[in-house]
Every structure is written in C-alpha cells, then in structure tokens.
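Narrative progress, year one. The postdoctoral researcher (J.K.) led the effort to move from monomer predictions toward full complexes, under supervision of the PI. The following entry was the first complex the group processed end to end, covering 763 residues in total.
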Amino acid sequence: MIEKGKISGLQMAILLYPTVVATALLILPATTGQFAKQDMWLSPIWASLFGYLAVMIAYRLHHYFPQETFVQYSEKIVGKFPGKLLGFGFLFFILHTNGMVLRDYGEFVTGNFLKQTPLIVMIMSMAFVCALAVRGGLEVIARSSQIFLPVFIVLFFLIILLLIPALNPKNMFPVMDEGITRSIRGAFVPSLWFSELFLISFLLPYLHEKEKGLKWAVVTTAFIMITLVTTNLFTLLLFGDIASSFTYPVMDAARYISIADFMQHVEAIVMAIWVTGMFIKICIFYYVVVIGTAQWLRLSDYRPIVFPIGFVLVSVSMWSASNLQELTHFTRTSWTFYAGLFLIVIPIVLLLIAKVRHKFPKKQSH
Amino acid sequence: MKRLFKPEKRLLTIVLCCIPIFLSGCWDRTEVNDLAIIAGVGLDRTDNGKIELSVQITNPKAIGGPGMSSGSGQSGQQPVIVKTGTGKTIYDARSKLQEKTSRQLFEGHNRVIIIGKSLAETGIRKHIDFFARFPIPRLRANVFFTDGKATDILKVIPSFENGESAEAARELAELKIGMNVTTKDLLQQLASSSGDTALPKITASKSKLGEGLKVNGTAIFKNNKLTGQIDDKVTRGLLWLTDAIETASVTIQPKDAEGYISFKILRSSTELIPTIKNGKWKMIVRITTEDDVTENETKLDMMDPKIVEKLEKQMEKSIDKRIQLVLDEVQTGMEADVFGFGEAFERTYPQKWKQQEDQWDKKFPEIEVVIKSDVKIRRPGRSGGPQGVPQEKEKKK
C-alpha cells in the first residue's frame, strides 16, 4: 500500500463531517429555499438518506475488497480496461468537483471580504496549504482536522446562539402546505452533497479499527443532517421568504447579529468557519485525487504527484466557470447528474456486479 | 532546524523565508485613517428624478483621540460631516460622492437609512436592493421615513450620543416607541404578496435648549409607495396590533371618580387568529397585557379587587378604541395591509389564500376585525390606597 498511515474511526468521522458541511453551510438555505420555501428545513432530512445510501454502498464494496480503494477494485470488478476508464472518470470527476469547491471558497472570500485581491491568489494560497497537508499523508490531514473541527463546531454554535433573539418562529408556517413534494425538490441538490460521503471508499482501507467504520460513518451522516437542518431552520426563522434571495444567507444572518450593541460585526466568525471547513474538504478531495491517481498509475509513492496535481487543480478551478452565476448554475443543474452518476449509479452497478461475481466465482480465479 | 542549513536545502530555506512577506497583508489592506466611516445614509429624490444620497460621516477629529475624555464639543469640531452626491442610482451617487471625499467611503458601520418624502412617493423597493447587494452595508440598519428631506435629519446635532443624529435615531428605534424596522424587516415586507409596509417617521425638533430627534407617527406604504401618514396616537394602535408594543403607558379616566390613573405595560402579546367561515374572512385579534399601576390621581383604592376589575374592563375598551382608530385609518382608509393580516391568512389557510391572493387588495379592506383584549392589572405599585387622602375618605366601591 502506498499510504502507510492509519486513522481511527473517530478521525474518519472528523474528516467526513466538514467534507459535506463546509460547502453546504453557507449556500444551503439559498439552494433549498428556492424550491422548498418554508419547508426548507425538512430537505436535509430527505437528502441525508442519500448519505446513508452512499455510505452503505461504499461499505459493502469495502467488505468485498477490504484493502482496496474504488480505483483499485473497479479494475477487479469490471475488468482491466473498463476499470481503468471508470477510475479515470471518477478521478476526473473528483478533481473537477474539487476545483469547483476551491473556486467556491475563492469566490466567497473575494466577494465578501477581500474585494481587491485577485481570485487566483486566494485559490493558489489555499491549494498550496492543502498540498502541504496532502503531502504529509492521511494521518496529517486527520490530525489537522482534529484541531480545526472543534473550532468549527464551537464557532458554528456561537453564531446559532447569538441569532436566537432575532428569530421569528412564525416564518416556519404553514408547514408542508403542499405536502412533502416541495421539500423533496429542495433536497435534490443537497442529496448529492451527501453522496460525497462515498469518498469513505478511500478512507476505509486505512482504518485501524475496521469494525467501527460503518458505525462512525452513519453517526457522521446523522450529525451532518442535524447541522444542516439547524442551519436551514435558523436562516428560515430569521429571514422567512427572503432567505433564498441572498447569495450566502448564513453570512447575512451572522451579520445581522447584534447583542447589546457591542456583540456585533461577527462575520469574521463565519469566515473562520468557512475557511477551516473548506480546508478540510479540499484536503480530502485533493487527497482522494492524489492517492487515486497514484493507484491508477500504479506508482510506488504518491508524494511526487502532489504538486503537479495541485497545479491542475488550480487551473481546473479557474476554468470551471467564468463567474459565480455560472458556477452556481452548473452546481444546481449539470453537476447533479454528473455527481449522481459517479457517486451513486456507478458504485451501485459495481456493487451488483461484485455481488454476482462473489456468488458465482469463476473457475479461473484459482 | 539544522536540516534547513544543509547545502541541498538552501533553496527551500530561501523560499520559506520569502513566504512570510506574502502572509503579512494583501491587496485589501485599508487603514482606519483612510476610511470615511458612514454612520447614516439619507435618500432623497431630486426634481429631475435622480437620487440624492446624503451620508453622515463621523468626524474622526471630534471623536476619539485625546479629546475623547474631555467631551467632543470642546475642540470646536463638528461631530459629524454631512455630504451629498447625486446620481442615477444609489451607487452612482455614491461614486460621485466619493469624488468629493478624500477618504474611502465605508458603510460597514452604517446604522440608519432615512428615506425622504420625495423618494418614498415614487417607490422604495428598487432602491433598497443596494443595501442587500453591496457587500459592506448590514441588514441591521434601521430604516426611517421623514416628511421632508433626509439630509436635514442627518444634519441635526442632538445633545446626546456625541452629537451623531444617526446614533440617536437608532437609539430611538431601539426604545420601540414607534415602529422598529430594520433593512431585513423591510425587505421581508416588500417581498410579501401585498408589498405593503410601514416605516417609522422621524422628525427634527428644534428648540432653544438644543436640537433633537423624535419618532412621531408612521408612514404607510402601499405597494412600496407612500400613501399616507398616521400620527403618534394611531401609531400606538398599530404597535398593539402588530405585537410590537414594548414600552407603553395607558392613562384612563375612571367613570366614577375624578382624575386619571396611569398604567405601565409590563408585557403584552397580540395574536392574530384568522378564520374563514362560509366564505367570510374574519380576523380575531386577541390581546393580552399585564400592567402595573404607576399613578393614581383619583381617590380609588387600588387594593380593592372590585375596583381593579372595573378598571381592567375600562382599559380593555381604551385599547380597543386605539386599535379601532388605526383600523379605520389604515385598513379602510389607505387599504394597506401593514398588519400582516395577509401572512396570517396564508399561514392558517394556505389553500384558500392561493385562490384569493390576487384579490387580496380588494378583500383586505372588507375583512371584519374582532378585537378581544384582556387586561390584567397585576400590582398596585408602591402604594395601596390613594396617597395624601385621609383613610376614611377613600372611595370603596
């Protein structure tokens, strides 16, 4: 194995939580509110079902190939050439998604805080930091997120707590006046964010307490769901119908905080949450691309390709869209099918084939 | 550390030393002394249809620095500077204004937005967008209406708050004597199906003793355009109706005694209960308040439960009357739904609301409103019976 580090179940959970939450946190109310209106707080609950599904698929596949990642076992399941093709497609998808995530980060920081700073500077500095972490290996990423995640969670709850006086519970009603269809439509995009949990396929082989892998993955999914429901609920109770008209509703919610005339202007907290969360998210995606590529090319070490892939990542993120509107549009339309294909459909097909192969083993395997 | 000084690592060492240079700052570094901190914004419309933007800039020389402790007035500096720019849009006006200002305009600490009458009459929806789109302003800023020009309000130098009228206006809104509307609230109300909203009216009061600001009355906007104004007294009714009353006093004259009795409202809650029966739309307003007696001019004994019960009844009527006043003026007079009746119906009867949404404008003035107030007088205050009256002459009734 290329990766020599081992992580614990809890560390895996700590890595997965920001992987979904980081992007979702800021733009989720805008994305879901568009379709779900005042039922938007229900959407993450439906969406989380996809999270469980992705975790289950990854876990079942892991069960058949305990030492291998998606890139490796896809070759064994569907044969060498199709497997390589699938692996390439998957890696390209993850690289592209990571580029978009990186771009999202850059757009947020330049759009809200550092308006004069060129986007490329934001993106490159983040990519550089992530590259250093990825070069250090999985253990380094896990430990750094172990330091960042408590900060992330504490700051998040601080924002939630400070918002309480400004909330208006009436904004929630009527609940489900058009049945659950609206909230399900709102769950469409977030369900694919949840599907990103399929990336545990790349973490499970390096777990040193294998039996706890599934338990922690399920616990994380539940926590992600709770966090997202809270985010949507608070934004809804604060803004009501206009929640989805903001680009970053949570940001505007945090800026609304004013306690006793001195506890105000706390948007730096949102920035801190976003940067720490995004760092972990980008690291995980980056790591998956790097380790996946190394396995795809059967390299003996993944370290030499970290920086080259970093350069590709930066270019992808610069080229992925010409502006924020295009990026958002792409995430809400084409990306959903793109992600659904690689994170749900292909893994399910692979799992089915693997199951069939397992039941009827070929004679030549001896 | 030793590793870094090895010859083959020298390049790395140099690179590492260069990195901190980039870490120390970035393109967006702005020093506080390059900023013109805006405390208040005023919006007016010129005769030829342009936007006149006035900003109140905190004068850095008057506040802060060594003069701070000895009071702001001593240095002889004006505490604020008011500047005006004209343009097609707010941002256009802002850039014209920037030309005239030696420091970079900064709205991050903007506390109030004052809308002048001329602009209010032509519609406010399109102008409020700037405050929700431009990254710097906050949605927390309080929005006011003024009958004259917004610039004049910004120019007022009140005796309190270091002479900043913007801060004074915000404090007035926080006291909740009139309506308290933030940019967020305004956006929400404009986005509602009716687009009707109400803004507190702010006026400058000048006297020999000094200048000041006061919130008296409310401006009513129908479909984001100014349609009318209501005075202080009617505004109180509006506050009762919208559950926004917080610091209030009620004074009544008991029927069977001379003089007045004043009450302080401790807490009050208003519930709007919409009902639709046989196609008839009705709104039940249920008000529950708790009061304490604060002044008693009469000879009535405030400890007597029977008297208190009678007073409660009378207060209920007085509250009903106030609310009826606002209903007459705003519901039937201006036909503007600033009470949130529409949302209340939407929340309780979402299906029926959808069928009627288009006709809400016509339907709203015809809605029957039933006011059910329930007053509870909790405590007599520090004294029981009337003060300064011999015990035997107290009225026991």
